[in-house]
Specification:
single chain; alpha+beta; 3-stranded antiparallel beta sheet; extended; coiled coil; PEBP_euk; ribonucleoprotein; PEBP-like_sf; ribosomal protein
Length: about 280
């Protein structure tokens, strides 16, 4: 019995020593004592970031608040393409100009075709890139269906500062109301505009999501024109008079977004009207 106990003690001694050394190696590495859970047990940085950034898919789901995109019938598209090819092939002058390298293409026709096909989706992606939907509508978005032509006049009255999709305009170039034009008869189907009966009503807003310095989730309204009849912005009601962009020095570029809303009927915006002198909270 004594010999067995001695043998067991001799065998357990190295095991205890090895366990003690292993524990020491885990707790001390290069002279620094480890804190927290041991490697392999603690969560990695990637796992912890994934937990912090986890969002409810129902809450983060994007909602389309715009008009749906209704594609023309496939047969109509095919017929239009065939007619276009037939017209080109029956015109010998096009081939002569192409061979002589003197054929010119009207960019306005290209732009018109672009706006009818993939243009609205390109504009949507640009708006997402600049964070327009996120900072103005949260989880909502829309595909712009009506093309806006915006240009700021100079002191001489000429339209010298057009607004595109993210170009830079100096405050000195936007001192007065811009000239805004759009097609009020657009049928929201991607086809050519058609004259519709009755009046159409619209609302145009110029907002600055970077202009509020006390609350980051608010914006500053620079222009609010409501009840625009048949696309004539000059005849709309000035709910908020035009205010020239005034970004303070050192705040970087400010996004100024033109948003056009389609009204079902003429609305009363009297309670939101702001006078020329009342601009304390826009």
């Amino acid at each position: 019995m004594a010999s067995r106990i001695g043998v067991q003690s001799l065998l357990s001694g190295p095991q205890l020593l090895a366990t003690s050394l292993a524990t020491t190696r885990l707790q001390v590495r290069h002279g620094h004592r480890l804190r927290g859970k041991a490697p392999g047990v603690a969560k990695t940085l990637e796992q912890r970031l994934a937990e912090e950034r986890a969002v409810d898919p129902e809450v983060a789901r994007k909602v389309n608040i715009g008009y749906p995109h209704l594609k023309p019938a496939r047969s109509a598209q095919l017929k239009e393409r065939l007619d276009h090819l037939k017209a080109q092939r029956s015109n010998p002058e096009l081939e002569k100009l192409a061979r002589a390298k003197t054929l010119t293409v009207d960019p306005e026709l290209v732009r018109r075709d672009w706006l009818k096909t993939s243009g609205p989706f390109h504009v949507q992606r640009l708006a997402e890139h600049y964070g327009v939907f996120e900072h103005l509508f949260g989880a909502a978005y829309f595909v712009p269906r009506v093309n806006l032509k915006v240009a700021f006049p100079t002191n001489g009255g000429e339209l010298a500062s057009p607004v595109y999709y993210g170009n830079v305009i100096k405050p000195s170039e936007a001192t007065s109301e811009p000239d805004v034009q759009f097609d009020p008869n657009f049928d929201f189907k991607g086809s050519e505009s058609k004259q519709v009966g009755g009046d159409s009503w619209w609302t145009l807003v110029l907002t600055n999501p970077d202009g509020h310095f006390t609350e980051s989730d608010k914006e500053y309204c620079h222009w609010f024109v409501a009840n625009i009849p048949n696309g004539d912005v000059a005849k709309g009601e000035r709910i908020v008079p035009y205010l020239q962009p005034i970004p303070p020095k050192g705040t970087g570029f400010h996004r100024h977004v033109f948003v056009l809303y389609k009204q079902e009927k003429k609305l009363d915006f009297g309670e939101y009207a702001v006078g020329e002198q009342d601009r304390t909270d826009l």
